[in-house]
Amino acid sequence: MEKLSIFVETYGCQMNEYDSDRIINSLSANPVKDPSDADIIIVNTCAIREKADHKAVSAVGKYKKLKIKNPNLIIGMAGCVAQLYGKKLIKQIPHLDFVIGPREIPKLRDLVFDIKESASHRKINTSMDVEEVFQISPYHETGKVNGFVSIQQGCNKKCAYCIVPTVRGSEINRPLKEILEESRLLINQGAKELTYIGQTVNSWKYEGERFYNLLDYLQELDGLERIRFTTSFPRDITSKMINSMKNNTKVCRQLHLPVQSGSNRILKLMKRAYSIEWYKDSIERLRDAMPDLSLSTDIIIGFSDESSKDFEETMQLIEDIKFDTIYSFKYSIRPGTSGELMDSHVNEDIALNRLHKLQSRQREISLENNLKQINKRYKVLVESETKNNPNEFFGRTSQNKAVYIKNIDKKSIGEIINITKTEAFQNSFIGEPT
Ligand code: SAH
Ligand code: F3S
Prior knowledge:
Blueprint lengths: L4 E6 L3 H13 L3 E2 L8 E6 L4 H12 L2 H6 L4 E5 H14 L5 E3 L7 H11 L4 E3 L20 E5 L1 E2 L10 H5 L3 E2 L2 H13 L4 E5 L7 E2 L2 E2 H9 L6 E5 L8 H9 L6 E3 L7 H7 L5 H14 L4 E8 L6 H14 L3 E6 L17 H24 L5 E9 L7 E5 L4 E4 L10 E9 L3 E6 L1
Parallel strand pairs: 1-2, 1-3, 3-4, 4-5, 5-6, 7-10, 10-13, 14-15, 15-16, 19-21
Antiparallel strand pairs: 8-9, 11-12, 17-18, 17-20, 18-19, 20-21
The protein binds S-adenosyl-L-homocysteine (SAH) and FE3-S4 cluster.
């Protein structure tokens, strides 16, 4: 197959970003910035909330004009919406050539080849029984400082609101050898910081190895400066994991630990398998071990029959923990989940009001946390030059805080430098090299 120019539009989580890079690699394609220069356009979609899956369909819709101009253009939909609605999408969107589910990416090359060779358009690849799910590694721009490595596909938890197990299947843990090989590949292409991803990474296990051992193996990788991972499941936080993080010189002081609600009653309805007491105790143990650990979480507002008392318990939780960042969402009923069958639902306006209240208090907390860091020194891995401001550079601290820095030069990209934070905002800082 001749080298194709590809444009991939990505929605959703880091797993989708990773899959988009695998899509590019699987076709050995040349990524382009403008869709009108592409031979193939793929929209990689997210189904987590209803709004996200509507977006997917309209995103594909906007490429219709390009297809009319260039009938040879191939348009495909990948990701969770493709998996969820498969055939229906092919019927609904006449200019869509194929849909492909997340597990079938290793088959993309053959699929596109078939479309080009036989002109037998309109393919649906949404099988879940694919053995080589990890086969393709992601495309990595040479010299890019950070990258992702998947260690797990799918999810074995059954959270009542969540569509992920339906569209991404049950948990498959990636073999240790493949994780190390892919890490080395990205490090050889210039990556200094790798984020290990999966739906519940800390439940990873493979042939007797556990997540806490995996961190030890990763620490040994020459050339790798920083290790991050996401997402962790609260119930699977163990003392061994905490110790392993603490003693690992490369693991960043950052943890994303979705709590979802501050109410035990709601957590039970959500089938989250932990209590608020367990969650808070885990945070205490983590903070005892790593006092400079930055914490973020996810919260769903308005699940099932969330009462004002349940909501106040969530407000209290964010007061008690003082997360650095919260990703919060209004509950969206998803097809095929057990939540879909629960009959009492919170009124839309009430849910929206609660969401705004939570977000507005969290904005204050994030800023308060950040203001406490002014005039303190941190190590920043410099990632890139800022697009709009020449001579300004962007980097992150171990705590994943974004810092904008002047008075350094291009050679610092890819280096860890010392800075002092001089100004703090809600989501970022200004730093001076020191
Ligand atoms: N294991 C993954 C879950 C991916 S979904 C992780 O923890 O990152 C990411 C977040 O989306 C979840 O933590 C949850 O807060 C939110 N979410 C999932 N399903 C949702 C739904 N039906 N409505 C609203 N938010 C949802
Ligand atoms: Fe979803 Fe719960 Fe798994 S949020 S991805 S079912 S841990």
